[in-house]
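Deliverable D5.2: sample structural annotation.
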Amino acid sequence: MKQDWMIQVLNDLREFAALNGLEDLVSKLDETTVVARSSMVRGDGTVRGAAAQQAGLSVKLA
């Protein structure tokens, strides 16, 4: 899916923040990633694109 790049960018930013001791930023990026992933969920509960695999989510959200 076209939005998958957003998750990768957030992951890259989180990794940089963690490596540089920016713990507050790491926490906020974790929250932002959750919001981004949930925003990629379709109305029927299925997760769009590779975001499901990257998140370790099942195909269908309960």
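Annotation notes: DSSP finds three helices and no strands in the chain. Helices lie at 4-19, 23-39, 51-55.
The annotation will be released with the project's public dataset once the embargo ends.
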